[in-house]
Structures are given as C-alpha cells and as structure tokens.
Automatic annotation (TrEMBL):
Organism for this UniProt entry: Ahrensia kielensis
The name this protein goes by in its record: Tetratricopeptide repeat protein
PANTHER family the record matches: TETRATRICOPEPTIDE REPEAT PROTEIN 6, UDP-N-ACETYLGLUCOSAMINE--PEPTIDE N-ACETYLGLUCOSAMINYLTRANSFERASE SPINDLY-RELATED
Cited PROSITE patterns: PROKAR_LIPOPROTEIN, TPR, TPR_REGION
SMART domains referenced in this protein's UniProt entry, alphabetically: TPR
C-alpha cells in the first residue's frame, strides 16, 4: 500500500474550521463546514442511516452470528462513527480491513474517522489505499480532496474534486468544495454553478447556501446574498456560519444593531467562532 508525506495539522481538534475573510471593504469570505460543536456532517454519509444504541446493538448481534463478515464490521463502524464513538469505529474498520485487505470502502470510512480525530497522515494513507484498490471510487477522491484543501494544497484538492465529478459522483461535497476553490480564485460564476449543483443534490444542507451568499457578496448582489443566508438559517438555525454571514451582510448595509445581534447569536452557538468574534469586536460588541 502507498503512503504520503504527512499533511500539516489544520487545528488542534482536527475538526472543520470555518473561514470568513470578509470585512467592510468587501473582501471575499469563504465558508467551509458546520460548527465545530456538532458531529461532522460527513458521518451521515457513510453507509448507515442510524447511529443509535438500538441500531448498534442490532449490528452487534449480526456480528456475533457472523464474526468473520467484514461488511458487518464496516457497517457497525459507520454507526459508531455517526454516534461519535470514534475509537469504536476505528476498531471495527480495522477488523473489516483485517478480514478483507481489499475492502476499499472500509479504508475510506476509516480515513474519515482519522481526519475527524486529527490524524491527517493516517487519513491520507487510507484514502490512497482505497484509490489504489479502486481508482474509480469517487468518495475517496472527495475525502482526499478535502484533506488537501484544508492543508492549503488547493490545486491537488481541485484535481481530486474534479476527478470525482468526472466519475459522475452524486456526493454534493465534491461540488461544494470545488465551488469554494473557484470562489477563492474569484471565479464566482463557476462557484455559483457548483453551489447550485450541490444544492440540487443536498437541498437541506445550509453549507452551499452560505457559499452561494459569499459569491453574491463578492459580485455585489446583496439582496441575493441575504436570500441565500436567510434560507440557510431556515434550514438550520443552529449553524454559527450562517448567523455570522448574516451579521456581515447587516454590517455592510450599516445596520449595526442587527449585525451585533446576529454576531452574538453565532457566538452563542459556537463561542470559539473567530469570524463572529472578530466581527463583534469590529463593530463594538
């Protein structure tokens, strides 16, 4: 199996970090993921719908009856991952791979858990292993691309998202993340197209709506930006990124009291959310 040079750690927790680069001067803002206070949304996309104790108990019963079935361990590992029991998830993925060393889905699932726990080198190695076994596995390209993006290796990230899209992926993350890269390159028309596709694939996710809002801000389309942010809030009113983006829009319109209220709401949801803290300091909190 191949390995890669260790990717730099993005932050101490290894969890997604939201980046807002906008100010009153109209500098572009770029959003990444959901608040670090919640279980990462990618967990919901790995093979099982439920991370409940009841479901895990049922899967455990299956394993007792089929102790050499790698699929059973992979599915239970996914359930553990969704529940936030990451060490248990890793043990199950390890067992699945031990039973079937060519189980590329288990490598990709284990990579996601490694990434959440902050072990980016192990995550990269697992994604590479998955792709060595199956070079057409779109989810592994999406996962590895996100590692590259977080490490600032945007060209490599773009290439991985592009490859997943060329493989006709239905994973909205590929389009959302590629859109963020287009956005960072100030190619906002391309970014908006990608956010629209991500929305069509995941209409209940606030993330691409926030991305869309930032590109609208950069294009001076403030009303469209408000519509996108407000819809993101209607989908999930506990997303700190959405409230901070709304605050930024109020700030740009000179509605300082409303901006202050939205920044404070963002900080209630995530007290460590730096863009909201900076915004509140800027306008006087």
């Amino acid at each position: 199996m191949t390995s890669v040079t260790k990717l730099p750690t993005i932050n101490g927790s290894g969890k997604p970090r939201l980046i807002l680069l906008a100010s009153l001067l109209g500098t572009l803002t770029v959003s990444a993921c959901t608040s670090s206070t919640s279980i990462p949304s990618e967990i919901a996309r790995i093979e099982t719908e439920q991370g409940s104790a009841e479901n895990i108990g049922s899967l455990t019963a299956v394993i007792r009856s089929n102790p050499n079935d790698p699929v059973a361990y992979n599915v239970r590992g996914s359930a553990f991952g969704k529940s936030g029991s990451y060490n248990d998830a890793l043990r199950d993925f390890d067992k699945a791979i031990q039973l079937n060393p060519r189980y590329f889905e288990a490598y990709a699932n284990r990579a996601l858990i490694h990434r959440i726990k902050g072990d980016l080198a192990a995550a990269a190695t697992d994604y590479n292993n998955a792709l060595q076994i199956n070079p057409r596995y779109d989810k592994a390209y999406v996962g590895r691309g996100e590692l590259y993006r977080r490490a600032g290796r945007t060209n490599e990230a773009f290439n991985d998202f592009q490859k997943a899209i060329q493989l006709d992926t239905t994973d909205p993350r590929a389009y959302h993340r590629r859109g963020l890269i287009y956005q960072s390159r100030k190619q906002h028309d391309f970014a908006l197209d990608d956010f629209a596709t991500a929305i069509s694939l995941a209409p209940n996710s606030p993330e691409p709506y926030n991305g869309r809002a930032i590109s609208y801000i950069a294009l001076g389309q403030i009303d469209n930006a408000f519509d996108a942010v407000n819809f993101a809030i209607s989908l999930d009113d506990k997303n700190a990124e959405s409230w901070a983006n709304q605050a930024l829009l109020w700030e740009q319109k000179g509605e300082i009291d409303k901006a202050r209220k939205s920044y404070r709401r963002a900080l209630q949801l995530n007290a460590n959310f730096e863009p909201a803290r900076n915004g509140l300091n800027r306008i006087g909190g």
